[in-house]
Amino acid sequence: MVQDADGTTAGSTSNSRDGQQPPEQGMDRIKEVAADVWSDPWWTAPNALSALRLAGVPAFLWLLLGPQWDLFALLVLVVSGVTDWLDGKLARWLGQYSRVGQLLDPAADRLYIVATLVAFVLRGVVPWWAAAALITRDLLLTSCLPVLRYHGFEPPDVHYLGKAATFCLMYAFPLLLLVQGDFALDWIAQPLAYAFTCWGGVLYLWAGVLYLGQVISALRSSRARG
What we know:
By secondary structure, this protein is mostly helical. Helices cover 73% and strands 0% of the residues. The relative contact order is 0.14.
């Protein structure tokens, strides 16, 4: 559910009509969010792990497209998955939550997905149209974030379908890498790789449609409030 800055949901139209103060001007709100990100603590253990994941993206691409060292690229993916789990745990254990971390963590996930899809298309592992659909989904939803901020709404909450889609894709990519070489258990890995790819791709697009529906609902409620 998309929430307004005052905590009301997108479906609520009671802000200005009940005598409450109207939301701040759009650009002022965007500047306020940017100031909050800048003022937050940057150098925390969870943020360091997220930064490490981001730094691994160009190395991952080079391993796939340069020498095509798939096993090393697979190792980078595994390390990325471990740090993804660990930074969330550390944030809870140490109480080191920040807006910076809230931005870095999903950004790293999206960059790994986009980088992997681009590399797989260039190497003929997946068809270009499938990769284009998934990348377009991410670009479209990313472009919606400043629009939501402008109208005074928080980004949509991550729901279970989006998490399940990312989970499937993060399993599909290593399996697809494994079946590119001479792997002893190809007969097991190959159907699993294709199954996770299909499930993850469909769920990823479906989750994108749901997120887009939340954005449209939020903008309609903003227009209804005048």
